[in-house]
Amino acid sequence: MNKTPTSLVSDGVAVSAYAKLNLTLEVLGKRPDGYHAIRSIVVPVGLHDDVVVSVSGDGADGDVSLEVVADGADISRIGATGDNLAVRAARLFMERTGCHVPLAIRIVKRIPIGGGLGGGSADAAAVLVGLNSLVTRHSSLVTPLSTADLMEMAAMLGSDIPSLVHGGTVVMEGRGEKVRPLAMADGRSPIPALPVVLANPGVFVSTAEAYRAVRDDLTDTPILGTIYDTVSRGMDFASVAAALRNDLEDAVLPRHPEIAALAAAMRGAGARAVLMSGSGATVFALAEDDEEAERIMRALPAGCWRTLTRLLPDGVMAAHGPLEA
Ligand code: C5P
């Protein structure tokens, strides 16, 4: 049952904003614009924030209010409303479509902030998807934007937001804006819905600093092979485990031994597929079955944030009326 107050949702939409993991993250080289050329397989996981976007009765057209409620995430690091990526997404959407309404955004936050799980990016993607549905419903004169249009807007907000607007298992390239599905011939993801343990020591890692610290000689070591191509058969645990790679680990782990310690604790419990996600500080362990995942959970040191969820390889981000949620 959705418990969001009816007054807030009477003219609103709800979107589940799923966290993501980078199963691979290759840093291929530095670009003239200061960003890095990357290649990464992004897959959603079941952990998600709830984002509700509503037309609010008491604001002027174009006003955006934000309410963030913690449900397991430490929200003390959330800055001023105007800097929030979800609010910036709403403003950009209204600016680009010329469709200005007073908006209220409510986020129930479960994804750790600054944790390499794309939480802020997923919230922003959810606002774009939700608003696209909301304004169409609000005015019969407005036609919805295409997913490609939304992804173009998303790229203006952050490098990994287009992949989250797209949803499902994708390969992202360029600085993140070039997105294509990683799919089998029938359209489904080749990645199995494996159990996954996520753990985070609560340290903050700056993505910009992580990229700055990447060695310059990585360009000659791209992953070879076919995992980035459309694959005809599904992958099993062993082949996914063998494909894991994150070029930001060498830049981040020596500076943050707490993150390396969590990865070591997972491996100590027998985990065979452990990697840092994005620029950290979250590390994940894929498990072959629930029993293995529970054993890894139990081995984590007290005090760290952790959750047991599953890969959601075909997950979609859809806007729907909140009362149907
Ligand atoms: O695009 P986003 O704001 O998420 O990126 C944060 C920072 O990470 C950028 O300012 C840049 O320093 C770095 N970055 C990069 N190459 C990428 C993505 C991000 O250097 N492909």
Describe it for me?
This protein is of the alpha+beta class. It has two domains: 12-182, Ribosomal Protein S5, domain 2 (2-Layer Sandwich); 195-310, Alpha-Beta Plaits, CATH 3.30.70.890. 28% of the residues lie in helices and 26% in strands. It has ten helices and twelve strands. The chain has helices at residues 6-9, 85-97, 119-138, 147-157, 161-166, 207-212, 237-243, 249-252, 257-268, 290-298, and strands at residues 12-30, 36-55, 64-70, 103-109, 170-173, 178-181, 195-200, 245-246, 274-276, 283-286, 305-310, 319-320. Strand 9 (274-276) and strand 10 (283-286) form a beta hairpin. 45% of the residues are buried. The structure holds cytidine-5'-monophosphate. Cytidine-5'-monophosphate binds at residues 35-36, 38, 158-159, 175-176, 207-208, 211.
Write a compact overview of the structure shown.
The protein is an alpha+beta fold. 28% of the residues lie in helices and 26% in strands. It has two domains: 12-182, Ribosomal Protein S5, domain 2 (2-Layer Sandwich), CATH 3.30.230; 195-310, GHMP kinase, C-terminal domain (Alpha-Beta Plaits, 2-Layer Sandwich).
